[in-house]
Amino acid sequence: GKSGYDHYMLKEIHEQPTAIRQCLHERVVELEREIAVDSVASLSVPDRVQLVACGTSYHAALYGTRLLRERGVPATAFLASEYDVDAVPVDRETLVIGVTQSGETADTMTALREANSVGATTLAVTNVVGSSAARECDRAMYVRAGPEIGVAATKTFVSQQIALVVLASELTGEYDVDLVGALRDLPGQLQSVLDDSRARTVAEEYLDADAYFFIGRSYNAPVALEGALKMKEITYKHAEGFAAGELKHGPLALVTDRTPVFALVTEGANPTKTIGNVKEVETRGAPVVAVTDGCSDVERYADFVLEVPETHPALAPVLANVQLQLVSYWVANDLGRSIDKPRNLAKSVTVE
Ligand code: F6R
């Protein structure tokens, strides 16, 4: 059941601290300050990594590429539906990771089969034990979010993010001590975001908006995309997310006093440059909602601030994303949408 929540989505948003703990269990050993993942422990550091995924899982994959590149591994994320179309070069020295919550998404399966057919090493990062992706791939790493009922992916996305953090560390043997410590604190910090969030107030304030924009750089760019996707899916309102630097290359033309801009401004994700973009939209009368860890003076330009606790720069987007999930949820709720089963959408997309 929904355990007293009005929707599965809200319940699953609140299950995220637990989802993180489950994902980390026996993988991050705090006392020994190390990370260990059985399913990939024997893999050598790959020459290159390709991540294939759709939708929200693609946003997790984009986040994963950054984690890997930071550790010196050339990594690229592909939309699974474009993987064969693009004639991506793939060979035996490539590790291809399918990021798929359900493990059944047709496009992702096609991409993984293609990778297997040329002898690449394949790894499924999935939530479902024994799913098609888990069976197709050489290895499987389970994200352990528990069953997700709401069509909109929430806790499985967070679990994918955490699994990729752990995986990037394990694959490269780079155990950042600060990161390990920050992972331990993350469930409690996420809980504090849930307890203290002002997302409902923000949602009510901008219920009549023409469109919602989401901007962020670096680690936060995938979260900007994810914030917009969630908003579209469950509210049926227009939303766009993009890397903040793209703003002046087109989208700025859409910005008015009826298009709130959500700016992700956290430590280590080029806050100063993103504040530059915030000023550009503020000058054009757009309401600004800053999702921030207090690393800058972005509050000065913001109409609302959604706070996230300070953490390791790589984990800030995990917390920032939760604020955006809540904003979308409350907008959808206040508009009376069918939150757990949005129109036209299915939980598992098994046709290409
Ligand atoms: C959005 C959403 C979808 C899925 C996509 C891939 O909330 O849930 O975009 O992320 O259909 O699904 P999986 O991860 O099962 O391959």
Automatic annotation (TrEMBL):
Enzyme class: transferase
The reaction(s) this protein catalyses: D-fructose 6-phosphate + L-glutamine = D-glucosamine 6-phosphate + L-glutamate
Chief localisation class: cytoplasm
GO molecular function: carbohydrate derivative binding; glutamine-fructose-6-phosphate transaminase (isomerizing) activity
One cellular-component annotation, GO: cytoplasm
Its EC number(s): 2.6.1.16
Active site per database record: 347 (for fru-6p isomerization activity)
Domain SIS: 39-178, 202-342
Keywords: Aminotransferase, Cytoplasm, Glutamine amidotransferase, Repeat, Transferase
UniProt-listed GO biological process terms: carbohydrate metabolic process; fructose 6-phosphate metabolic process; protein N-linked glycosylation; UDP-N-acetylglucosamine metabolic process
Compartments (UniProt record): Cytoplasm
Organism domain of life: Archaea
Summary of the function given for this chain in its UniProt record: Catalyzes the first step in hexosamine metabolism, converting fructose-6P into glucosamine-6P using glutamine as a nitrogen source.
Subunit structure, as described in the record: Homodimer.
This protein's name: Glutamine--fructose-6-phosphate aminotransferase [isomerizing]
Origin species: Natrarchaeobius chitinivorans
